[in-house]
Design goal:
GO molecular function: metal ion binding; UDP-2,3-diacylglucosamine hydrolase activity
GO biological process, one term: lipid A biosynthetic process
Number of domains: 2
CATH architecture of the largest domain: 4-Layer Sandwich
Strand content: 15-25%
Structural class: alpha/beta
Helix content: 40-55%
GO cellular component, one term: membrane
Distance between the termini: 45 Å
Protein name: Metallophosphatase
Strand order of the largest sheet: 1-12-2-3-4-5
Largest sheet: 6 strands, mixed
Family: Belongs to the metallophosphoesterase superfamily.
Radius of gyration: 25 Å
CATH class of the largest domain: Alpha Beta
Number of helices: 10
Order of helices and strands: HHHHEEHEHEHEEEHEHEHEEE
CATH superfamily of the largest domain: Metallo-dependent phosphatases
Shape: globular
Length: about 400
Protein backbone atom coordinates (compact mmCIF):
# COMPACT_ATOMS: atom_id res chain seq x y z
CA UNK A 1 0.00 0.00 0.00
CA UNK A 2 1.42 3.40 -0.94
CA UNK A 3 1.80 6.25 1.49
CA UNK A 4 -1.23 8.39 0.54
CA UNK A 5 -3.90 5.62 0.75
CA UNK A 6 -2.41 4.49 4.07
CA UNK A 7 -2.80 7.92 5.62
CA UNK A 8 -6.28 8.38 4.14
CA UNK A 9 -7.36 5.08 5.69
CA UNK A 10 -5.78 6.09 9.01
CA UNK A 11 -7.65 9.39 9.11
CA UNK A 12 -10.94 7.79 8.02
CA UNK A 13 -10.76 5.29 10.87
CA UNK A 14 -9.69 8.03 13.28
CA UNK A 15 -12.68 10.22 12.33
CA UNK A 16 -15.07 7.30 12.85
CA UNK A 17 -13.65 6.29 16.23
CA UNK A 18 -13.45 9.83 17.58
CA UNK A 19 -16.92 10.64 16.30
CA UNK A 20 -18.44 7.67 18.08
CA UNK A 21 -16.53 8.36 21.29
CA UNK A 22 -17.54 12.04 21.42
CA UNK A 23 -21.18 11.26 20.69
CA UNK A 24 -21.16 8.85 23.62
CA UNK A 25 -19.61 11.54 25.85
CA UNK A 26 -22.30 14.02 24.79
CA UNK A 27 -25.06 11.49 25.42
CA UNK A 28 -23.88 10.63 28.93
CA UNK A 29 -22.75 14.08 30.06
CA UNK A 30 -25.38 16.29 28.40
CA UNK A 31 -28.43 14.40 27.18
CA UNK A 32 -28.82 12.01 30.11
CA UNK A 33 -28.10 14.65 32.75
CA UNK A 34 -30.61 17.14 31.34
CA UNK A 35 -28.10 19.94 30.80
CA UNK A 36 -29.48 22.94 28.87
CA UNK A 37 -28.20 23.77 25.39
CA UNK A 38 -28.12 20.18 24.19
CA UNK A 39 -27.90 21.06 20.50
CA UNK A 40 -25.19 23.67 20.98
CA UNK A 41 -23.17 21.26 23.09
CA UNK A 42 -23.62 18.54 20.47
CA UNK A 43 -21.95 20.89 17.98
CA UNK A 44 -19.14 21.52 20.48
CA UNK A 45 -18.52 17.79 20.94
CA UNK A 46 -18.65 17.26 17.16
CA UNK A 47 -16.04 19.97 16.65
CA UNK A 48 -13.87 18.41 19.36
CA UNK A 49 -14.11 15.06 17.56
CA UNK A 50 -12.82 16.43 14.25
CA UNK A 51 -10.30 18.86 15.74
CA UNK A 52 -7.62 16.25 16.49
CA UNK A 53 -7.41 14.64 13.02
CA UNK A 54 -7.69 18.04 11.36
CA UNK A 55 -4.94 19.37 13.60
CA UNK A 56 -2.72 16.42 12.70
CA UNK A 57 -3.38 17.00 9.01
CA UNK A 58 -2.57 20.71 9.32
CA UNK A 59 0.63 19.91 11.18
CA UNK A 60 1.81 17.99 8.13
CA UNK A 61 1.33 21.14 6.03
CA UNK A 62 2.41 23.87 8.45
CA UNK A 63 5.50 24.25 10.62
CA UNK A 64 5.70 22.66 14.06
CA UNK A 65 6.28 26.13 15.48
CA UNK A 66 2.88 27.23 14.15
CA UNK A 67 0.97 24.18 15.39
CA UNK A 68 2.81 23.07 18.53
CA UNK A 69 0.57 24.85 21.04
CA UNK A 70 -2.68 23.81 19.40
CA UNK A 71 -1.55 20.19 19.03
CA UNK A 72 -0.57 20.05 22.70
CA UNK A 73 -4.07 21.20 23.67
CA UNK A 74 -5.77 18.85 21.21
CA UNK A 75 -3.76 15.78 22.20
CA UNK A 76 -4.27 16.54 25.89
CA UNK A 77 -8.02 16.73 25.31
CA UNK A 78 -7.89 13.48 23.36
CA UNK A 79 -6.26 11.69 26.30
CA UNK A 80 -8.66 13.23 28.81
CA UNK A 81 -11.65 12.35 26.61
CA UNK A 82 -10.45 8.76 26.36
CA UNK A 83 -10.13 8.46 30.14
CA UNK A 84 -13.56 10.05 30.57
CA UNK A 85 -14.98 7.60 28.03
CA UNK A 86 -13.50 4.70 30.02
CA UNK A 87 -14.89 6.05 33.30
CA UNK A 88 -18.37 6.47 31.83
CA UNK A 89 -18.32 2.99 30.30
CA UNK A 90 -17.41 1.65 33.75
CA UNK A 91 -20.44 3.43 35.26
CA UNK A 92 -22.68 2.04 32.51
CA UNK A 93 -21.44 -1.47 33.21
CA UNK A 94 -22.14 -0.95 36.92
CA UNK A 95 -25.66 0.27 36.14
CA UNK A 96 -26.23 -2.69 33.84
CA UNK A 97 -25.12 -5.07 36.58
CA UNK A 98 -27.43 -3.35 39.07
CA UNK A 99 -30.35 -3.58 36.64
CA UNK A 100 -29.65 -7.26 36.17
CA UNK A 101 -29.63 -7.87 39.90
CA UNK A 102 -32.89 -5.96 40.27
CA UNK A 103 -34.38 -8.09 37.52
CA UNK A 104 -33.37 -11.27 39.31
CA UNK A 105 -34.82 -9.95 42.55
CA UNK A 106 -38.10 -9.11 40.83
CA UNK A 107 -38.31 -12.59 39.31
CA UNK A 108 -37.87 -14.29 42.68
CA UNK A 109 -39.84 -11.93 44.89
CA UNK A 110 -42.50 -9.24 44.95
CA UNK A 111 -42.63 -6.85 42.03
CA UNK A 112 -40.32 -3.85 42.44
CA UNK A 113 -41.62 -0.33 42.07
CA UNK A 114 -40.51 1.42 38.86
CA UNK A 115 -37.61 3.82 39.20
CA UNK A 116 -38.70 7.39 39.79
CA UNK A 117 -37.64 9.72 36.87
CA UNK A 118 -36.25 12.22 39.36
CA UNK A 119 -34.13 9.53 40.96
CA UNK A 120 -32.97 8.36 37.53
CA UNK A 121 -31.83 11.91 36.72
CA UNK A 122 -30.08 12.20 40.09
CA UNK A 123 -28.22 8.93 39.49
CA UNK A 124 -27.20 10.01 35.96
CA UNK A 125 -25.84 13.32 37.22
CA UNK A 126 -24.05 11.73 40.17
CA UNK A 127 -22.37 9.09 38.03
CA UNK A 128 -21.42 11.63 35.35
CA UNK A 129 -19.93 13.94 37.97
CA UNK A 130 -18.00 11.10 39.55
CA UNK A 131 -16.68 10.02 36.16
CA UNK A 132 -15.53 13.57 35.38
CA UNK A 133 -13.70 13.85 38.71
CA UNK A 134 -12.06 10.42 38.36
CA UNK A 135 -11.01 11.02 34.76
CA UNK A 136 -9.70 14.49 35.61
CA UNK A 137 -7.55 13.18 38.45
CA UNK A 138 -6.24 10.33 36.29
CA UNK A 139 -5.48 12.72 33.42
CA UNK A 140 -3.55 15.09 35.69
CA UNK A 141 -1.42 12.23 37.01
CA UNK A 142 -0.91 10.85 33.52
CA UNK A 143 0.33 14.22 32.22
CA UNK A 144 2.83 14.50 35.08
CA UNK A 145 4.08 10.98 34.37
CA UNK A 146 4.54 11.56 30.63
CA UNK A 147 6.12 15.00 30.76
CA UNK A 148 8.33 14.44 33.79
CA UNK A 149 11.69 12.72 34.03
CA UNK A 150 11.65 9.09 32.81
CA UNK A 151 12.49 6.45 35.38
CA UNK A 152 15.68 4.40 35.11
CA UNK A 153 15.01 0.66 34.84
CA UNK A 154 18.11 -1.38 35.65
CA UNK A 155 18.28 -5.13 35.31
CA UNK A 156 20.87 -7.85 34.95
CA UNK A 157 20.41 -10.14 31.96
CA UNK A 158 22.42 -13.36 31.56
CA UNK A 159 23.63 -13.70 27.97
CA UNK A 160 24.61 -17.10 26.65
CA UNK A 161 28.17 -17.39 25.30
CA UNK A 162 29.17 -13.96 26.64
CA UNK A 163 32.92 -14.00 27.43
CA UNK A 164 33.59 -13.88 31.16
CA UNK A 165 35.78 -10.81 30.64
CA UNK A 166 32.70 -8.91 29.42
CA UNK A 167 30.39 -9.86 32.28
CA UNK A 168 29.02 -6.54 33.52
CA UNK A 169 28.99 -4.92 30.06
CA UNK A 170 26.21 -2.31 30.13
CA UNK A 171 23.77 -1.27 27.42
CA UNK A 172 21.61 1.83 27.82
CA UNK A 173 18.40 1.54 25.79
CA UNK A 174 16.40 4.52 24.54
CA UNK A 175 13.22 3.70 22.65
CA UNK A 176 10.17 5.47 21.22
CA UNK A 177 11.33 8.96 22.11
CA UNK A 178 8.97 10.42 19.46
CA UNK A 179 10.60 13.82 19.14
CA UNK A 180 7.99 15.89 17.34
CA UNK A 181 5.28 18.51 17.79
CA UNK A 182 4.99 18.09 21.57
CA UNK A 183 8.31 16.46 22.56
CA UNK A 184 11.10 18.92 21.92
CA UNK A 185 14.56 20.02 22.97
CA UNK A 186 14.00 20.03 26.75
CA UNK A 187 13.05 16.36 26.92
CA UNK A 188 15.81 15.27 24.52
CA UNK A 189 18.45 17.08 26.61
CA UNK A 190 17.06 15.47 29.77
CA UNK A 191 17.18 11.98 28.26
CA UNK A 192 20.72 12.49 26.96
CA UNK A 193 21.91 13.69 30.38
CA UNK A 194 20.20 10.76 32.14
CA UNK A 195 21.72 8.26 29.72
CA UNK A 196 25.23 9.68 30.04
CA UNK A 197 24.89 9.58 33.84
CA UNK A 198 24.49 5.79 33.60
CA UNK A 199 28.01 5.58 32.08
CA UNK A 200 27.00 2.78 29.69
CA UNK A 201 29.47 0.81 27.60
CA UNK A 202 27.14 1.23 24.60
CA UNK A 203 23.88 3.05 23.86
CA UNK A 204 21.17 1.52 21.68
CA UNK A 205 18.17 3.40 20.27
CA UNK A 206 15.44 0.98 19.21
CA UNK A 207 13.37 3.09 16.83
CA UNK A 208 10.53 5.62 16.71
CA UNK A 209 12.96 8.38 17.53
CA UNK A 210 11.19 11.10 15.53
CA UNK A 211 7.82 12.28 14.25
CA UNK A 212 8.79 14.89 11.70
CA UNK A 213 11.42 15.93 9.19
CA UNK A 214 15.08 16.66 9.82
CA UNK A 215 14.54 20.36 9.09
CA UNK A 216 11.74 20.59 11.67
CA UNK A 217 13.43 18.65 14.45
CA UNK A 218 17.17 19.20 14.08
CA UNK A 219 17.30 21.78 16.89
CA UNK A 220 16.05 19.09 19.29
CA UNK A 221 17.68 15.94 17.93
CA UNK A 222 21.18 17.39 17.53
CA UNK A 223 21.58 16.95 21.30
CA UNK A 224 21.90 13.22 20.58
CA UNK A 225 25.43 14.03 19.43
CA UNK A 226 26.26 14.46 23.14
CA UNK A 227 25.56 10.79 23.92
CA UNK A 228 28.74 9.19 25.24
CA UNK A 229 29.57 5.49 25.41
CA UNK A 230 32.94 3.76 25.19
CA UNK A 231 31.74 1.34 22.52
CA UNK A 232 29.45 3.66 20.58
CA UNK A 233 25.81 4.59 19.98
CA UNK A 234 23.63 2.46 17.68
CA UNK A 235 20.20 2.84 16.09
CA UNK A 236 17.56 0.80 14.29
CA UNK A 237 14.53 2.24 12.55
CA UNK A 238 10.99 2.13 13.89
CA UNK A 239 7.82 2.50 11.87
CA UNK A 240 7.64 6.27 12.49
CA UNK A 241 11.01 6.88 10.82
CA UNK A 242 9.43 5.73 7.56
CA UNK A 243 6.70 8.35 7.91
CA UNK A 244 9.32 11.07 8.44
CA UNK A 245 11.94 10.49 5.73
CA UNK A 246 14.06 7.54 6.85
CA UNK A 247 16.98 8.14 4.46
CA UNK A 248 17.41 11.73 5.59
CA UNK A 249 17.23 10.73 9.25
CA UNK A 250 19.79 7.97 8.88
CA UNK A 251 22.19 10.46 7.32
CA UNK A 252 21.49 12.96 10.11
CA UNK A 253 22.12 10.37 12.81
CA UNK A 254 25.45 9.47 11.24
CA UNK A 255 26.33 13.17 11.47
CA UNK A 256 25.67 12.94 15.23
CA UNK A 257 28.04 9.99 15.54
CA UNK A 258 25.21 7.45 15.82
CA UNK A 259 25.66 4.22 13.83
CA UNK A 260 22.50 2.88 12.14
CA UNK A 261 22.29 -0.89 11.81
CA UNK A 262 20.32 -1.59 8.64
CA UNK A 263 20.09 -5.38 8.54
CA UNK A 264 23.70 -5.33 9.68
CA UNK A 265 26.00 -6.61 12.41
CA UNK A 266 29.18 -5.50 14.16
CA UNK A 267 31.44 -6.48 17.04
CA UNK A 268 31.37 -4.93 20.51
CA UNK A 269 34.18 -5.33 23.00
CA UNK A 270 37.82 -5.94 22.15
CA UNK A 271 37.85 -6.17 18.36
CA UNK A 272 41.44 -7.35 18.20
CA UNK A 273 42.42 -10.97 17.46
CA UNK A 274 41.40 -13.18 20.35
CA UNK A 275 39.82 -10.29 22.25
CA UNK A 276 36.69 -10.70 24.33
CA UNK A 277 33.72 -9.53 22.27
CA UNK A 278 30.16 -10.27 21.20
CA UNK A 279 27.96 -9.50 18.21
CA UNK A 280 25.42 -6.68 18.01
CA UNK A 281 22.96 -6.91 15.11
CA UNK A 282 20.11 -4.68 14.02
CA UNK A 283 17.25 -5.05 11.55
CA UNK A 284 15.01 -2.52 9.85
CA UNK A 285 11.46 -2.16 11.05
CA UNK A 286 8.67 -4.24 9.52
CA UNK A 287 7.17 -1.03 8.08
CA UNK A 288 10.19 -0.57 5.81
CA UNK A 289 9.38 -0.89 2.12
CA UNK A 290 10.42 0.89 -1.10
CA UNK A 291 7.32 3.11 -0.86
CA UNK A 292 8.44 4.16 2.60
CA UNK A 293 12.07 4.83 1.74
CA UNK A 294 13.46 1.64 3.21
CA UNK A 295 14.13 -2.09 3.00
CA UNK A 296 12.35 -4.95 4.70
CA UNK A 297 13.94 -6.43 7.85
CA UNK A 298 16.32 -9.24 6.93
CA UNK A 299 17.71 -11.14 9.91
CA UNK A 300 19.47 -13.61 7.60
CA UNK A 301 21.38 -10.75 5.97
CA UNK A 302 22.34 -9.28 9.34
CA UNK A 303 23.68 -12.63 10.57
CA UNK A 304 25.35 -13.79 7.36
CA UNK A 305 28.63 -15.70 7.98
CA UNK A 306 28.35 -15.24 11.73
CA UNK A 307 30.20 -17.51 14.15
CA UNK A 308 27.35 -19.30 16.03
CA UNK A 309 29.57 -19.74 19.09
CA UNK A 310 29.58 -16.01 19.77
CA UNK A 311 27.08 -14.19 21.98
CA UNK A 312 24.52 -12.17 20.03
CA UNK A 313 22.27 -9.20 20.89
CA UNK A 314 19.64 -8.12 18.36
CA UNK A 315 18.01 -4.69 18.02
CA UNK A 316 14.53 -4.80 16.46
CA UNK A 317 11.94 -2.08 16.98
CA UNK A 318 8.84 -4.28 17.11
CA UNK A 319 8.70 -7.27 19.50
CA UNK A 320 8.06 -9.71 16.67
CA UNK A 321 9.93 -12.62 15.13
CA UNK A 322 11.21 -13.80 18.51
CA UNK A 323 10.98 -17.50 17.60
CA UNK A 324 13.00 -16.85 14.45
CA UNK A 325 15.54 -14.92 16.50
CA UNK A 326 15.87 -17.85 18.91
CA UNK A 327 16.40 -20.25 16.01
CA UNK A 328 19.10 -17.94 14.65
CA UNK A 329 21.02 -17.98 17.93
CA UNK A 330 20.00 -14.58 19.30
CA UNK A 331 20.58 -14.52 23.04
CA UNK A 332 18.80 -11.22 23.71
CA UNK A 333 16.47 -9.08 21.59
CA UNK A 334 15.86 -5.44 22.53
CA UNK A 335 12.62 -3.90 21.29
CA UNK A 336 10.09 -1.15 21.96
CA UNK A 337 7.07 -0.05 19.89
CA UNK A 338 4.32 -0.99 22.35
CA UNK A 339 4.88 1.83 24.90
CA UNK A 340 3.74 -0.74 27.46
CA UNK A 341 0.23 0.31 26.49
CA UNK A 342 0.99 3.95 27.52
CA UNK A 343 -2.50 4.74 28.82
CA UNK A 344 -4.60 2.36 30.92
CA UNK A 345 -6.70 0.44 29.92
CA UNK A 346 -5.17 0.52 26.43
CA UNK A 347 -2.45 -1.75 27.83
CA UNK A 348 -5.01 -4.58 27.89
CA UNK A 349 -5.47 -4.25 24.13
CA UNK A 350 -1.72 -4.06 23.53
CA UNK A 351 -1.13 -7.15 25.68
CA UNK A 352 -3.71 -9.04 23.60
CA UNK A 353 -1.98 -8.07 20.34
CA UNK A 354 1.65 -8.51 21.43
CA UNK A 355 2.57 -11.58 23.52
CA UNK A 356 5.72 -9.68 24.52
CA UNK A 357 4.61 -6.16 25.32
CA UNK A 358 6.49 -4.93 28.41
CA UNK A 359 9.53 -6.08 30.35
CA UNK A 360 11.80 -9.13 30.10
CA UNK A 361 10.65 -12.47 28.68
CA UNK A 362 12.35 -15.79 28.01
CA UNK A 363 11.32 -18.03 25.12
CA UNK A 364 12.38 -21.62 24.50
CA UNK A 365 11.63 -23.27 21.18
CA UNK A 366 12.98 -26.56 19.78
CA UNK A 367 15.75 -26.70 22.34
CA UNK A 368 16.87 -23.13 21.68
CA UNK A 369 16.25 -20.22 24.03
CA UNK A 370 16.30 -16.47 23.73
CA UNK A 371 15.24 -13.47 25.78
CA UNK A 372 13.48 -10.29 24.75
CA UNK A 373 13.28 -7.03 26.63
CA UNK A 374 10.50 -4.66 25.54
CA UNK A 375 10.91 -1.08 26.70
CA UNK A 376 7.88 0.99 27.73
CA UNK A 377 9.46 3.81 25.74
CA UNK A 378 11.23 7.02 26.65
CA UNK A 379 8.66 9.47 25.27
CA UNK A 380 5.03 9.15 24.27
CA UNK A 381 2.89 9.31 21.15
CA UNK A 382 -0.30 11.32 20.81
CA UNK A 383 -1.70 12.40 24.19
CA UNK A 384 1.06 13.67 26.53
CA UNK A 385 -0.04 11.08 29.08
CA UNK A 386 1.16 7.85 30.62
CA UNK A 387 -0.95 5.83 33.03
CA UNK A 388 0.27 2.45 34.23
CA UNK A 389 3.28 2.45 31.89
CA UNK A 390 5.86 5.07 32.96
CA UNK A 391 8.52 6.22 30.51
CA UNK A 392 11.95 4.71 30.97
CA UNK A 393 15.62 4.74 30.09
CA UNK A 394 16.83 1.18 30.48
CA UNK A 395 20.21 0.02 31.78
CA UNK A 396 20.85 -3.62 30.93
CA UNK A 397 23.82 -5.28 32.59
CA UNK A 398 24.95 -8.32 30.59
CA UNK A 399 26.23 -11.20 32.70
CA UNK A 400 27.67 -14.64 32.05
Amino acid sequence: MTRTPTFLLFFAVLFAVLGGMHYYLWARLVRDTGLPGRRALLVVFALAAVAVPLGMALARRLSFRATRGSLTVLFTWLGAAFLLFVALVATDLARLLWSGLRGLAAASGPELAPTDPGRRLFVARTLAGGAVLAAGAAAAGAVRSATGEPRVVELAVPLERLPRALSGFTLAQISDLHVGPTIREKHVKRVVDMTNALRPDAVVITGDLVDGSVAELRAATEHLARLRARHGVYFVTGNHEYYSGARAWLAELRRYGVTPLENARLTLGDRGPGGASFDLAGVNDWSAAPGYDGRWPALEQALEDRDPERALVLLAHQPRGVAEAAAAGVGLQLSGHTHGGQLFPWNLVVAAVYPFYKGLYRLERDGKATQIYVSCGTGYWGPPMRLGAPAEVTKLVLTT
